[in-house]
Amino acid sequence: MTLRLYADRKGWPLGDVTVVLDHSRVHARDCEECEEDSNVLLDVIRKHITVSGNLDTEQLERLHEIADRCPVQRTLEGGVKIFSELGAA
Fold first, then answer.
1. What is the DSSP string of 5-68?
2. Domains in the chain, start-ordered, CATH in brackets?
3. In terms of pTM, does the model score above 0.90?
4. pLDDT tens digits for 32-61?
5. 8 A C-beta contact, residue 51 and residue 14
6. How far apart are CA 43 and CA 51, in angstroms?
7. Strand 41-53 and strand 14-27: pairing?
8. 15: which of 26, 51, 52, 66 fits an S-S bond (Cβ 3.0–4.6 Å)?
9. Residue 3: which region, alpha, beta or left (left: phi > 0; alpha: psi -120 to 50)?
């Protein structure tokens, strides 16, 4: 959604956008990109984005930057607290 809004605002010919996520849990010591304590289990999400449309290299790079700053990714990177309530009808 973020990419679509950005491309539309810029008038770029963005076609379909597909996002594939892969989730795994790894020990920090097994994650080359991670800086946490090595005994901690981390949730790792790998994101692969495929776009179609007649976009040049500069536009593709900018869309990649925008995708890395979307609200969902920023929320997940910042840590999530979940508070749950149960109600009866």
1. HHHHHHT--EEEEEEEEEEEEEEGGG-TT--S-TT-EEEEEEEEEEEEES--HHHHHHHHHHHT
2. 2-76 (3.30.300.20)
3. no
4. 666 655 677 888 889 999 999 999 999 999
5. yes
6. 26
7. antiparallel
8. 52
9. alpha
* Among 81, 77, 66, residue whose Cα is nearest residue 33: 77
Residue 80 tokens, joined = 């999530």
Give the helix/strand (H/E) hosting 71. Answer: helix 71-77
Measured in residues, the chain has a length of 89
Residue 34: per-residue pLDDT: 64
Q: How far apart are CA 16 and CA 53, in angstroms?
A: 7
Q: What is the pLDDT of residue 35?
A: 64
CA distances from residue 69 to 1, 6, 72, 83 in whole angstroms, order as listed:
12, 12, 8, 25
Residue 69 DSSP SS3? coil
What percent of the chain lies above the pLDDT cut of 90? Answer: 55
